[in-house]
# Entry
Amino acid sequence: MLFIAGSLWANYVLPKDTAHTSSQDSVHVFPKYENKYYADYSNNLDLFLYGKRKYNSYQIVHPVNEKVLEYSPNQQLNLGFGFHYKWLGIGIAMNFGFVNNDDDLYGKTKRLDWQTNIYSQKAVFDFYLQYYKNFYVVNPSEVFPKWQEGDANYIRPDMYSITFGLGGMYILNNKRFSYRAAFLQTAVQKKSAGSYMFGGDVFLQGIGADSSIFPSGSGFDTLPAVVSHSALYFGFTNAYAYNFVFFKNYFVSLSLAAIVQVGKTGSKLEDGTGAGNYKPILHIQPRFAMGYNSHKWYAGLSFVRDVYMEIADTEKGQITYAFESGNFRFFMGMRFGWLTKKTLIRTKNKEIL
# Structure
């Protein structure tokens, strides 16, 4: 795997320096500060290569037969590079045609997707701003009774989605647990630790099309002809996260938030009528990262996902809508002490308990 190959490269190709050797050599990397649990390397310049795939999908559950209709835009993998230095981090990723060349299968999706996960020492913030147009049915064999393997995909070029989300959580055990070590690599977790977190979020999402979002010839075309559905989700959040450290430099980070919130929903039909309700919303947010992270170089992968599921009253014929958004990332990078030599020499022995 990526982080295993990278660790071999670090052991046999990179110079055999440690965080506390030869302070006169500017290529050596020293932490801004460290304690028994993690070291902060945010004062160093680090350069990285990465790939990223962003997610946006909708699931609709039939109130009678409980079958699921899942829509997704044509996803794409972007490749690029970036840097971190102090509080600033920038990544530039591009769409390469030889990687994403399946428009004939899933349609050509227009998109605006700004997803940002901000990790500080004491808090984590998530921001979503997304617009997608052109969706296809992910699971046609479950939706269309006559669908067979090899049939063309059901594509909706008229279908669009809009999403805006903002959330944040405070990290209680921030002197032992570092989110940045797992997801930004501007720190290194030296000893396993975890933390409880709490905060809140608000999410606005909606889907729409020129005609009913339920395909004809499916088990869903007996439902009311919904042309758009939107929801505003809001409430408190809480989560627990833990960084496991193995063999000094290998890590696995697990995080889960699961809580019932409140949502204001509304649907519009083809005849122009509509209805809205307040519903309980199940919000699930898993985060996962794993890799190799030393004082000089790092490699690994991570993903973050938000799932909002409206808890509908199926006995009254209410339709269950669920929305997912998130991103998957793999990366490899190195740290350099060129810009902070004087600061590093002055602070390399500082320890905060």
Observations:
- The CA atoms of residues 229 and 267 lie 4 Å apart.
- Confidence is low (pLDDT under 50) at residues 1-26, 342-353.
- The chain is about 10% helix and 55% strand.
- The domain at 2-347 is CATH 2.40.128 (Lipocalin).
